[in-house]
Structures are given as structure tokens and as C-alpha cells.
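Title: [Solved] ATPase AAA-type core domain-containing protein 3D structure

Original question kept below for reference.
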Amino acid sequence: MSLSELGLLRARDTGRPVAELSIGQQRRLDLAVLLASRPHAVLLDEPTNHLSPALVDELTEALGGTAATVVIASHDRQLLRDIRAWPQLRL
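Solution (posted by the thread starter after getting help):
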């Protein structure tokens, strides 16, 4: 699977040096690389800090497409609404 297929990095940005990407693009690249490695678990602490509502949607979509167990610590109401239907283990 290519990084652009994850929806987190646009195809036109895949050839750019990382230093030329914005901080938001760098964070999305980090997440895309992580998800492309097909991890068993992903732990995220406030992953939506400094993301626009559109990017929160992209993040949710990308995470929803992974087979990994996803653990999220967040107070972001939009993110919590978006993942409401996901299987949950409340602690």
C-alpha cells in the first residue's frame, strides 16, 4: 500500500523533502508511515491537537482502515463523535 493510498499524504507531496513539509504534513507523514508498517497496536495521546476539522476527519478515516488495535486518549469532541461506533473498552 502506498502512503498516498492511506489518505494522509497527497501524491504530489510524496517526492518532497520532509523539511519542506508543514508540521501538519509531517505529522500526517509520520502516521502514514506508521500505518503502512501494519502495526498490531497504535497508541495516540491527543492526536488531534492543532488539526483542522477536515484533518480530524482524515485521521479518523485512516485509523478506521487499520486492523491494528487503536488506543486513543482525547478530549476532542469531534474525534470522540467520529469513533463512537468503534468497539470500545472503557477503563
